[in-house]
Specification:
With 295 residues, this protein is of the alpha+beta class. It has one domain (2-294). It has 5 helices and 10 strands; from the N terminus they run αββββββββββαααα. The strands form 5 sheets. It has a two-stranded antiparallel sheet with strand order 1-2. Helix 2 (182-201) runs antiparallel to helix 5 (253-294) and helix 4 runs antiparallel to helix 5 (253-294). The radius of gyration is 20 Å and the shape is flat.
């Protein structure tokens, strides 16, 4: 049990280091983190497996502290405010609610909700212009900085998928993932795997933005019938790239658009891989119950 907890801790720390960076760097796909997914079952008197009441294992990311060093602004030198960690009394606290447990100190019930597909639990997405700094150097302006035109000086973009709640619904085949039939669960798993194959290979050069964006949205559209978060994510990436059009006066604007697209893609992959693991548990339970009813 201790070894398993250690693995979860390692996974969570890797997730924080990769997805929490203020300036995203294209990582090797094999190094991207995996969402820890655990959901227990109990066997009833009829020999059927039922989902056990959710207790929630201690969160391995914050180690039940409920807060973490704010990934959005921890490396920012000029920011005075931060949407992820700021409060009404203190605009920038540098301590944000844990992205994995949403500040509850324990893992969420993944059958109900989990870290958001659009922000991985931050409630916000790194600004495509300033990356948390709230301001940005202007071409020809020397050391003088200008209030970021993309985020309007807030340092990040509010997540339009979860609306700041940090969590979103799980994949939802007919009757929901907790009660769906084996057939529907397997169909959902097949759909997710097909989308993951395409997303892992998807790149954004920023040369033909509209075409590249349409291609990405078409990939996510395949999951729209069984995933409201995926549909919302399709709209969010369009908005993020749209905001990037305000970057014409910024240096390095082409590279930042590409990095923004890649980070969002990796957020989506992180969520979908977590859903794939959850589906495996649901399929295992459904197969057990199907076999039990045949006896």
């Amino acid at each position: 049990m201790r070894n398993r907890a250690s693995i979860f801790t390692l996974i969570a720390l890797i997730a924080l280091s990769i997805f929490g960076a203020t300036t995203p760097v294209r990582a090797q796909k094999k190094d991207d983190p995996k969402m820890p997914v655990e959901r227990k079952v109990v066997t009833d008197e009829a020999g059927l497996q039922q989902w056990a009441p959710h207790e929630g294992a201690p969160c391995p990311m914050c180690r039940t502290n409920k807060v973490i060093d704010c990934p959005t602004c921890k490396d920012a030198e000029h920011a005075e405010t931060c949407l992820e960690c700021g409060t009404k009394k203190e605009p920038r606290t540098k301590k944000a609610p844990c992205r994995l447990c949403a500040g509850e100190g324990k893992l969420p019930d993944m059958l109900v909700e989990g870290p958001c597909i659009g922000c991985t639990g931050a409630g916000v997405f790194p600004c495509v212009g300033c990356r948390g700094e709230t301001s940005y150097p202007v071409e020809g302006g020397g050391k003088k900085r200008q209030k970021c035109a993309v985020c309007r000086g807030e340092g990040s973009i509010r997540c339009s998928v979860c609306k700041g709640k940090r969590r979103c619904d799980p994949i939802s085949p007919k009757k929901g993932i907790a009660d769906a039939s084996l057939k529907d669960l397997e169909a959902a798993a097949k759909s997710i795997e097909a989308v993951l194959v395409e997303l892992r290979a998807c790149e954004f050069a920023g040369i033909k933005e509209r075409d590249e964006l349409k291609k990405y949205q078409a990939i996510l559209k395949d999951l729209a019938k069984i995933s409201k978060p995926s549909k919302a994510a399709s709209s969010m990436i369009k908005d993020l790239i749209g905001l990037a059009s305000r970057m014409d006066q910024y240096t390095g604007k082409e590279g930042r658009k590409s990095e923004t697209f890649d980070m969002f893609r990796r957020y989506n992959v992180y969520w979908l891989e977590g859903q794939a693991e959850l589906l495996k548990l649901a399929i295992e339970r459904a197969k057990h119950n199907e076999n039990a009813t045949k006896k």
